[in-house]
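hey so i finally got around to running the thing on that chain from the lab meeting. sorry it took forever, my laptop kept dying and i had to restart like 3 times. anyway pasting the input first so we r on the same page abt which one it is
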Amino acid sequence: MRLHTLRVTAFGPFGATQEIDFDALSAAGLFLLHGPTGAGKTSVLDAVCYALYGAVPGARQSPGTSLRSDHAPADLPTEVLLDLTVGGRRLEITRRPAQPRPKKRGGGHTTEKAQSWLREYDPEDGWRALSRSHQEIGEEITQLVGMSREQFCQVVLLPQGEFARFLRADAEARGRLLGRLFDTRRFAAVEDRLAELRRVAEAQVKAGDDQILALAQRIAQAAGPAARECPLPDLQPGDPGLADAVLGWAATARSGAAERHDIAASVLATAERRHAAARIALDAERELAALQQRYAETR
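ok and heres what got predicted. didnt touch it at all, straight out
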């Protein structure tokens, strides 16, 4: 946001019209609002805030407080005009608060309602009117500036110790303000997306762990009593390292089963050899017995 011109009339301590050329001041880089107490330094900032949001900061907008200058002639209306560039758009905001004015007929005064005007500058067509609605202008400015009046007063306007109030605010309030100030919505969206991906990944991991544990249980059942030598890891689906632990257990169980298979195969081979030898011996004994019987019969 860049301010170009501020013109105040019958506002605060300014009884007449005063104009500030911010472009000329900004040409030197930084500039200072300086003057004795009551000179109107804070009122300049109040006028900027009032032009943008239709209200001045904090307690200075309390009931019974008038924005109209006590030094202004009765027929000079209170008005604030701000020419600025915000969001790449050149805008002019004019506001008049509710104020008394002399009646056109007869004596006495009548109260004139608050009024607002918003115009935008077009390089080809010049200034064109956009709105005279307080609500529409307020919503447009809040969206372009990216801050509410309270946030703008806490961060951009720092008179009368207002910044200290921001520093004393709780973490949640400061977080909301800084989030809008630096437009962290895209980071919050990324954070939300990553959190959603994490939830999906956790669900997928848990489903995979369920399948792994189910297969491990089937392996343990198939192993029978031998499974007691190598019990399953005491882990639940979703626990870190479950897959590696179960795969390690399965490798150990497989190695043990292979070893037991080799031992059983060796025992079986030995038994088969002994069975074959016993069969040969039995056949020899039977043949010998048959020969002896025939010999006895021939005598």
